[in-house]
Amino acid sequence: MIKKEVLDAINAQINAESYSAYLYLSMAAYFEDMGLSGFANWMKVQYQEEAAHALKFFNYLTERNGKVVLKAIEQVPVDFGGIVDVFEKTQVHEAHVTDLINNLMNVAMTANDHASQSFLKWFIDEQVEEEANVQKILDTLKLIDGQGNGIFMMDREFGQRVFVDPNAAV
Ligand code: MG
Questions:
Q1: Distance 17 CA to ligand 1 centre (A)
Q2: Which of 31, 56, 66, 138 ranks highest by number of CB atoms within 10 Å?
């Protein structure tokens, strides 16, 4: 049976991942409103990824015979100050999520819960990738410096992004 402190921490993380999903969906809405359907698509895939993270934690708790308890999702921002601002906020948010995952790992370590530590390793690696992805986008945006052609090309590229379900059997 999973220890209460680990159970509570994972339930809190399900809420945090759901907040992330909702945040990125809000960013997708912002891009749709700007007429940037490719950027919106990128954020919709991000939304799906975060929802899949929440589900991954959900399934893990079920597997460990722990009860999933869903709580209210905090209000997300609905307005942003342009493309760069959206990705800067994404970067800050992902750094925060990395802290949450690291704290979760600390809880599992203190509880001597090796199964949870093994499970959490996937998220530790995932956060490295998330942070690298956002950094790359911010670097490109800096290079483009608001030029219409560059934004157009990024929008076209981001329109190609597809969701790969981490919960799907491989
Ligand atoms: Mg996540």
A1: 5
A2: 31
Residue 94: closest CA among 136, 32, 154, 34: 136
CA atoms within 13 A on the CB side of 99: 6
Chain centre to alpha carbon of residue 118: 20
Q: Reduced to 3 states, what is the DSSP secondary structure of residue 76? A: coil
Report the separation in Å between the CA atom of 28 and the middle of ligand 1, taken as the mean of its atom positions. 16
CA of 142 to the centre of ligand 1 (A): 25
pTM, two decimals, is 0.96
Instruction: Measure 97 CA to ligand 1 centroid, in angstroms.
Output: 7
Centre of ligand 1 to C-alpha 115, Å, is 20
Q: Tell me, what's the pLDDT at 123?
A: 98
43-101 pLDDT, tens digit per residue, is 999 999 999 999 999 999 999 999 999 999 999 999 999 999 999 999 999 999 999 99
* 21 alpha carbon – ligand 1 mean position (Å): 8
Q: Which domains does the chain have, with CATH numbers?
A: 4-158 (1.20.1260.10)
What mean pLDDT comes out for the span 18-38?
98
Asked whether the beta carbons of 87 and 3 are under 8 A apart, the reply is no
